[in-house]
Specification:
It contains 13 helices and eight strands. It has 377 residues and is an alpha/beta fold.
Length: 377
């Protein structure tokens, strides 16, 4: 198996970076009639900046609102719009699902794609794949593309205005990157693009984790106050670029499979991708038999940045073994990344790890609350 590393053609990040979007597109030779697929929030915050940057670059553009779910129906709807307007470039602006849909549309029409995340809420922007859900929010499949985005541009002034929960979710997604990549490497399995992992991808995945531990809490504080700080810039890069390159060229394992399993339970649908991945990581660490010290570090970090460490925190107040088994069965479906582990993964094994993760998380919360009470007295 040959080593394979992939990445977007160009990555740009910084305060008010949207103002150079048109110029960056022109540099890459991807001007022309542009369809901007935007979330409601992106349209609200960026319409004026788009008008300025596209005018300066002489780029003709139209804005279309995203429906809210990256489903096959939504992808087909936007494809038709792009064909009707004879679009030459697709720009996605918003959260991970908007960007997933934009990449799917661009792939189907064989057009260049630009991703402009308005929150560092997942590692989707840099990847050559999309996660497709049903219209009811259940995971359906991954779509894989021939190439990564032509341009990823992150405006950190916009990210700083996003709800803090979005940054936390991005850290949950990024938190799993190193652990999943290390599992794939140790198991000598293929990464998400079908090759062996390069030492570059391994180093980026590890740096992602180290950056989260060092700067995660400070970055969340910055967003809670709507400010752009060096810590926020580093976490935005970790959530978006380091995790994006690390997961795709490194590989996925149980954590993301458990996320997919969780989507089969409707009570979890109000929770974000990264939040469910964060809980899935605890499940993975338990299934792999990691040391309590490693698990405790992940639990401490997760709690510090408001990530879930119990089933109740992802909507399951009274989890039963049958519910855990339902989640587990989807997690070990054929083709799932849970099978990238160096051992045989079964549904009962994952169900047990899910309930064990919940118990350990609840115990950690209880001890944490006890410490707070002692400190207050």
């Amino acid at each position: 198996m040959h080593q394979v590393f992939c990445s977007p053609a160009r990555y740009v990040q910084g305060r008010e970076a949207t103002l150079i979007l048109g110029a960056e597109m022109v540099k890459l030779g991807i001007g022309g009639k542009t369809l901007v697929l935007a979330s409601t929030s992106a349209k609200k915050h960026l319409t004026a900046a788009w008008k300025e940057t596209f005018l300066q670059a002489a780029v003709d553009y139209s804005i279309e609102l995203f429906s809210g779910e990256c489903s096959r129906k939504e992808i087909a709807r936007v494809v038709k719009l792009a064909v009707d307007m004879k679009a030459e470039v697709i720009v996605g602006a918003g959260g991970g699902k908007v960007l997933d849909a934009a990449r799917a549309v661009a792939c189907e029409l064989q057009l260049p794609v630009v991703n402009c995340p308005t929150a560092a809420s997942s590692d989707a922007p840099c990847s050559a794949l999309s996660v497709v859900y049903s219209e009811h929010g259940e995971f359906e499949t991954y779509l894989f593309y021939k190439r990564n985005p032509d341009l990823v541009l992150v405006d950190t002034a916009v990210v700083a205005k996003a709800p803090p929960r979005l940054l936390s979710s991005g850290m949950g997604d990024a938190l799993a990157t190193w652990f999943e990549a290390k599992t794939v490497i140790d198991a000598r399995k293929a990464n998400q693009v079908g090759g062996a992992t390069t030492i570059s991808a391994q180093a980026l995945a590890k740096l992602c984790y180290e950056t989260l531990i060092a700067d995660g809490r400070a970055a969340l504080t910055a967003v809670e106050h709507g400010t752009v700080t060096p810590a926020l810039e580093r976490i935005v890069e970790a959530n978006t670029l380091l995790s994006g390159l690390g997961f795709e060229s490194g590989g996925l394992a149980i954590a993301h499979s458990v996320h997919n399993g969780l989507t089969t339970v409707k009570e979890t649908h109000a929770f974000m991708h990264g939040e469910k991945v964060a809980f899935g990581l605890i499940v993975q660490l338990i299934a792999e038999g990691k040391s309590q010290a490693v698990i405790d570090e992940v639990l401490e970090f997760s709690q510090s940045v408001n990530l879930p460490i119990t089933l109740q925190e992802v909507g399951l107040k009274h989890p039963s073994y049958n519910v855990a088994l339902q989640i587990a069965e989807r997690s070990v479906a054929e083709g799932e990344t849970a099978h990238n582990e160096p051992f045989v993964v079964t549904a009962p094994m994952i169900a047990d790890a899910i309930l064990a993760a919940d118990a350990i998380g609840r115990r950690h919360l209880s001890k944490s609350n006890e410490r707070k009470l002692v400190a207050a007295t």
